[in-house]
Amino acid sequence: MAEVKSDIEIARAARKKPIQEIGAKLGIPSEHLLPYGHDKAKVSADFIAEMRKRPDGKLILVTAINPTPAGEGKTTTTVGLGDGLNRIGKRAIVCIREASLGPCFGMKGGAAGGGYAQVIPMEDINLHFTGDFHAITSAHNLLAALIDNHIYWGNELGIDTRRVTWRRVMDMNDRALRDIVCSLGGVANGYPREAGFDITVASEVMAILCLAKDLRDLEERLGNIIVAYRRDKSPVFARDLKADGAMAVLLKEALQPNLVQTLENNPAFVHGGPFANIAHGCNSVMATTTALKLADYVVTEAGFGADLGAEKFFDIKCRKTGLKPAAAVIVATVRALKMNGGVKKEDLGTEDVKAVTKGCANLGRHIENVKQFGVPAVVAINHFHTDTAAEIEAVKAYVAAQGEEAVLCRHWAEGSAGIEELAKRVVDLAEKGASQFAPLYPDDMPLFEKINTIVRRIYRGSRAVAEHSVLSQLEKWEEQGYGRLPVCMAKTQYSFSTDPNLRGAPVDHVVPVREVRLSAGAGFVVAICGEIMTMPGLPSVPSAERIFLNERGYIEGLS
User: What DSSP element (H or E) covers 327?
Assistant: First the structure.
């Protein structure tokens, strides 16, 4: 067997084109590109505004089964499908999220795809890129500083220091900062209080940037952020602190989509990156809507499995922007299906058709869920060299029994040539115009009923449960005019339940909602179910230990 190159080796050997050539493919004049070096650029706000009256191309969502340690390859499939569509003569753009430094140096690795289906420059995309996350971190922490400063200089707004809800953020996994006490050290340093840090991708500023339609909308949403409450429990907004203008200034360039290219020199927007189990898990509205004006097909992804990412893509992003996906691709691997069927990770290399068939229950649930939104779907079997013909056939037979089609894809090893069949099937679905997209629940449904609807129809749980204090908080928000907001479910990505070890397709489980948070600027209510960390910790052996500069000054260990 030939030596398999690492993702970073493949990316480093790529023949990149100047970013102006990539922009020219889309009809973007060079003067409307703000270059960051030779191989990446931001697209100007003026050009985006000029495109608004153009008709839209077709939007394709790539989602997946619940993630497992075996790997699914959703981003790789998204990038591969974009290349595949270009290969068969369609003008296609890939739209994916930016990578967070926390997972890069923690456990997950990068977010640029893999094998011969990657976006490049891989090292830049996975590290500081164009500085968007740093801008979001700065804007978020500016607001935090303004809150404490306002309290220090007399607290004219009457903020109850026990009810400051705005924490600080950093783009790194650091469990030691989850809960802290700040303002220690005497009178000159302010009033001591409990506080803490979240990871940047969990920031409401990140969610706002990814849902904002333009700069004016961004500033309005920033002003709507609730940062604290007074003793009478009335909210204090960011605009009350006059923070919205300065925050928008810090985010002005970050709002502009980042243009890069795939290994096959096709265009890709890599922009924004909210977590999918904490926030809504989709790339920016600005990138997606701009891409739709420039291409026949836009291929985008939603984070984690379809129970989280696709549901939020449909119920939050599409609801708020009027986006209507033409088709969906559900990514699965034989290895992951075997894990859902009870096989341990160390035994995945052994053929086990029975376990594959058993694990397909998880895939079947996601197929049913996507179809609930009225979106036609096709299954992409992301191929691994250990897959056997019998195992692949078992997946195809199962999906066929569900009335859908599963297509074997070899894009990781072969690039666009290995995903042509899927590209043709996606075009066939999209051109039929069969999509009858509609969100899962209406705007005017009560908030807890929205939560219960997701629990019952998407997770197949029996019901959601919550303490009286949670239900009272939801009723209070409804009285204040927030009842029409969608809900953003924050739960484990590994299961339909709140138990990460309960794989497959469990039914009739109870989903506890232990806390609710109002993201008034982003425009959704977060329901925290089970144990969810907004500041992850590093694993016992972090990826950072394997990342270094070699003797030639090249980065090694990044994936």
Answer: strand 327-332
As a whole number of Å, the end-to-end CA separation of the chain is 22
User: What's at 119, amino acid-wise?
Assistant: V
User: Is 76 among the catalytic positions?
Assistant: yes
Determine which one of 40, 90, 97, 425 is catalytic: 97
Single-letter code of the amino acid located at 537: G
Contacts of 526 (CB under 8 A, 6+ apart): 278, 279, 487, 488, 490, 516, 517, 518, 519
**Active-site residue, selected from the candidate residues 47, 133, 269, 412:** 412
Q: Where are the alpha helices (DSSP H) in 233-384?
A: 244-251, 285-294, 311-312, 319-321, 334-340, 353-372
Active site residue 432: no
Q: Name the active-site residue from 384, 448, 477, 496.
A: 384
Query: What DSSP designation does 384 have?
Result: -
pLDDT-based confidence at 1, cuts 50/70/90? Answer: very low
Task: Provide the mean pLDDT of the chain.
Answer: 95
Assess whether 425 carries a catalytic annotation. Answer: no
Amino acid at 531: E
Specify the pTM: 0.94
Please tell me the predicted confidence (pLDDT) of residue 279.
Answer: 87
The matching CATH number, chosen from 3.30.1510.10, 3.90.245.10, 3.10.20.310, 3.20.20.300, for 132-250 is: 3.30.1510.10
Active site residue 68: no
* Whether 153 is catalytic: no
Residue 445 pLDDT level (bands cut at 50, 70, 90): very high
pLDDT in tens, 383-422: 999 999 999 999 999 999 999 999 999 999 999 999 999 9
pLDDT in tens, 303-331: 899 999 999 999 999 999 999 999 999 99
Catalytic residue among 76, 262, 290, 492: 76
Q: Does domain 8-130+254-334+372-378+405-432 have CATH number 3.40.50.10610?
A: no
pLDDT value at residue 108 = 65
Residue 109 has pLDDT above 80, yes or no: no
Helices 447-457 and 468-479, packing angle to 10 deg:
120
Determine whether 200 is an active site residue.
Answer: no
Active-site position among 74, 221, 460, 503: 74
Task: Give me the mean pLDDT over the 133-149 stretch.
Answer: 98
**Fold of the domain spanning 447-529:** Formyltetrahydrofolate synthetase; domain 3 (3.10.410)
Catalytic residue among 105, 237, 269, 304: 304
Is residue 97 flagged as an active site residue?
A: yes
Q: What tokens were used for 427? A: 């075009």
Please state, in angstroms and rounded to a whole number, the distance separating the CA atoms of residues 221 and 209: 9
CA 122/CA 132 separation, integer angstroms:
16
Do β-strands 377-382 and 327-332 pair in parallel, antiparallel, or remain unpaired?
parallel
Is 276 annotated in the active site? yes
